[in-house]
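Notebook, p. 212. Picked up where the previous page left off. The plan for this session was modest: take the two constructs that came back from the sequencing core last week, fold each one, and keep the raw output in the notebook itself so nobody has to go hunting through shared drives later. Recording the first one now, exactly as returned: residue sequence, then the structure token string.
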Amino acid sequence: MLCWTKAKTSKLTTQDCHKRNLVYETWCITCQRKDEEEIEEMHRGDAGKIKEIKMKMKIHKYVGETSRSIFERTQEHKNDIEALKTSSHMLRHLLDRHENDSWKEVEFGAKVLRFTRSSFERQLLESVLIQENRDHHLLNSRSEYNRC
């Protein structure tokens, strides 16, 4: 998923998808694009206003941590959708926001937020980042908010 995100967005091109022990973020690119298109439609011709609103736009995102690589972890997230695991944040998002859409067409992006040296640092950072991102549409469950 990271390599796909790098190719699709031309961003984060230096991130290593096989390095371990990290905090990461996944988000719904489909919802982000839809929201950006609505903003551009509503404020046609006012580039400054469009940029300002896009900066404040709420994104449907998930903050996670893993001792494995982002390649392995995002593969597990994809497998969780196919297995219809109720614990899957991506499956919950698909059911909530894309019930009438073809799930194959819904795109999720991924990026590494930071690599860490210890599991304690990783879990603490995840908790802090979840709290910092409360203004967005977080896909994390309540148990992940309070787990650490």
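Okay, moving on. Second construct, recorded in the same format:
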Amino acid sequence: DQKTYHMIASGDTFGIFQLESDGMVSLLRKMKVSEFEDIIAAIALYRPGPMENIPTYLKRKHKQEPVTYIHEDLKEILEPTYGILIYQEQIMKVAQKMAGFTMGKADILRKAVSKKGSSLMAEMRELFISGAISNGYSQEVATEVYDHIEKFANYGFNRSHSVAYSIIAFKMAYLKAHFPKYFYANLLSSVIGVESKTREYITELRTRGVNILKPDINKSSEVYETEKDGIRFPLANIKNIG
């Protein structure tokens, strides 16, 4: 839905799960988000560790820097992320492709990678290099690729986790883009009793020209309700009212 992508790319993501922090808003604008894959990558990249890859990712995405690969055989695995190892699943696929690892053994490697410096990591190094050599790769290439995996040990994020986050984020963004009054009514209802968030969301609403209607004994309910002229303040959010 182009309206939703345009809203995300413009950084208008206040109230959207995973996408509303200042740093994430800045990344979404720089990325010029235009497809679902961009949201998945943004959520995986915007974390301590992976953040170091953001400048390179953006330059390659916008064709300001050539895309290079650790090894040409890994192009298919790394092409969607412009040659950068971002997801744990990519590490698993590299191990399958080069070292002939089974899915089970590749998953053990994934666990070892998340515990950098462990004895398991050293054990997996030997298995990876010997597997790659038996698949026709030189020891030099096998070592270089494994060193690269180790280098990004703290960076790898679980892609399936990022996809699940992105689905929720996109659904929320779609509702905000097409049904803002209903979106904000539900968002405000989710923070009843939390003054700081209520204040934030109401301020945002006012900048959009949406009225917050005063509490009304005849019209208010326990939650925020949408009306023709705006959103009705609930009785449940009035202090000391049981």
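Notes on construct two before I forget. The longest helix spans residues 159-178.
Flagging for discussion at group meeting.
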